[in-house]
What we know:
The complex is a heterodimer. By secondary structure, chain A is α+β, with helices and mostly antiparallel strands. Chain A has seven helices and eleven strands. Chain B has a five-stranded mixed β-sheet. Chains A and B meet through strand 4 and helix 2 of A and helix 19, helix 20 and helix 21 of B.
Amino acid sequence: MTTEKTISLEINGRIFQAQEGMTILDVAQREGIPIPTLCYHEALESVGACRLCLVEITHPDWKGWRGLVTACLYAVEEGLQVTTDNAEIHNTRRTLLDLLLARCPNSDVIQKLAAEYGVTATSFQKNPIETTCILCGLCVRVCAVKGCSAIGSARRGIQKKIAIPFGQPPPDCIGCASCAHICPTGTIKYEDTADVRKIWGHTFKMVKCESCGRPVMPEKQLEFESEKSGLGPDYFKLCPVCSQRKSVETIRSTFDMKPVEVAR
Amino acid sequence: MRIKSVKTLESAAKKARTERDQLKTEVLVCAGTGCLANGSLDVTKALERAIRGSGLDAKIALRLKNTGCHGFCEQGPLVVIQPQGIFYKGVKPKDATEIVEKTLREGEVVERLLYRDPNTKKKVEQYSAIPFYSKQLRIALRNIGKIDPNNIDDYLAIGGYAGLAKALTQMTPEHVIDAVSKSGLRGRGGGGFATGRKWKTCRDAPAEPKYVLCNADEGDPGAFMDRSICEGDPHAVLEGMVIGAWAVGAHEGYIYVREEYPLAVKHLQHALEQARERGLLGDDILGTGFSYDVHIARGGGAFVCGESSALMKSVAGEVGEPRAKYVHSVIRGLHDKPTVLNNVETWADVPWIITAGADKFAALGTKRSTGTKAFSLVGKVKNTGLVEVPMGITLREIIFEIGGGIIRNRAFKAVQTGGPSGGCLPESKLDLPVDFDTLTEAGSMMGSGGMIVMDEHTCMVDTARYFLRFLVDESCGKCVPCREGVHQLHQMLEAICRGDGQPGDIEKIESLSDVIVKASLCALGKSAPNPVMSTIRYFRNEYEAHINEKKCHAGVCRNLFTFKISEEKCTGCGLCLKACPVDCILGELKQVHTIDDKKCTRCGACRNVCPVDAVEVI
């Protein structure tokens, strides 16, 4: 949570102003300073799992303590000096990507990022199990924020995996597919047809747009969203395009405006 | 009955003490987990029957009671007769009558039940004269083995809860924090953080409520200090916690204890109930108006839940995974509120510091590591068990004087301190004083106090592999360097032990270790490479022999050695032949024996039984 208090800190030798409560990553992203991330999403609480955003800080107090911290979690402090890239940071990120490439040799996202750090083939033992999941946990976190907590993780250490309870279609899943959309490596898949969405072993019936007939969202999601938002089911019965069109029409009729001819 | 004031506490203690002092004899039977497993409850029952049968209990004031762990677990079941201080080991139910008739009735000692010093070969009668005990100084373990952990009166008789009474009525919270700071007490759970400073930061934190917690999630292989304290003296832990809560200003707390410690859970639960009943816990403690209550949270046995932030998540019902601690838990801990978490041993030290005085504690040990520390001394040492010694004592004194040296007088190779994430120290480090900073400098750590002694038959590469395996299993899997990195380290060590090591592996291990240390999220990951880094540092030649010569000179890694019976040494006694599980040893009695290498599975049974060390590793 940010406050009004302004803090000045140094990143790569340049002084920046920031609000108290911002993280190093917040400031770096605002200023266009590149810091790689895999488990970060601005809408979710950061956890510091992928460790790619490690940067070096020199602390103004603590007798000038110097060390690596995760930019996504470290809150800015007055007088903090940050270095976002040097040989040590580069080497650390390279090793982390080498490890991730050993885990997911076939993930194009990891291949690409690893190549940026000079790793084209992993120097470690390849994972015998085919996976592209890097266990960033974004899917689990977004599901929790959504209010469902339908998916979670099971086991620990190298055996850890994103899992559904008892391996059965999760009863709390509403089929919103937020998990699939947020997944940085495209591991979570879903399938949409005109009538149904298939995800996590469920087949959800889709609600059709009252106006154009295109699928809007799963019925279960509609129930969930309308109750959670208090807006009632009617609010969600139009697809985004038709919903927008309806808004325009409402405004137009309210203010008695004429349609504007747009030259094509 | 509820104790409503310090005065009532004093008279209750006096009453309990008088009752105890009137006893002519007390028979203490150890009922710690080790002795229980050895059948000490049957011994207790047999003694009970024998005493009743003898009619002695009608003649003299006699009490038979079960106590917590005496520490000398491998000699159990243990029976101690007080006030004479006679120490019997390995007692069986059939010995009960003899103990009652000879010792209790006649005052004589049953010779065959006495402890025999393996070095002097002499029998020792007195508890306090046994070298294992005589070198120790017990503060955290002060009452264990003396009192019945399930009887609060026994604790009161020994001066229990006097520290609490003093803190609540004669000291302000600031005074208590000052005293703990002055004592120099540092966290006994492994971190070694200054306890007084921790309490003060928590007290000064603006948010409310505050929590005071106890970490009883001891999970290091071979460590059982905290278990023994919870089992044998649960009230000391509670008393410490209430004093801490008073100092910090907390009214609620938890003891996070592992479910695998059923006896500790039971005794703690019982102690909580008794303390509440007596008004020493809960509302209006000792009539002072101060309130603090403790709940038990049972852990599911994940090693990582001993890490403070993971522990607090687990207590709150979430997945026990650590978080980054850029904001410390004393500011934002359990339920995001200021929280003090100390381990069992630290809490057990607190009442002693309050009653005996901070200066007395600070006078013990070294300047920066004061007081005493409990260790579980295990491995290839003659006397294994629970020991408590002043800080600053050398490793050599612990291993060779208290521990009695190495089993079968073999050569010492290494001692592993600090649990799985600690390090292995060689012979050249044996004269180092044991304190927080020295051990860290030497590449190991104090940890919670596990001490595993290894002899010349231990392979250091295999040892590192073993601890890494443990850490692979216990990593929570949240962050990449710990989850993937430690797994890869383990894979490399497996390959080396299998004989598939490659030149350059050592350097690769070192550079990966370096990244794991720097990049991991919590202390588990940051210290996970310690076993491999410390063994490379001190036993690099063993790694090189495994990789370059494909040899395991210690005779552990099965692909990398063969056994051969020395023609000069073999006496043809035939013991190895009988011990071999695959019948691969040939030879006539009183003739030199030979091993059929094709059939041999390298189990080492022959080597273990050979009385003349004729089985050699080639």
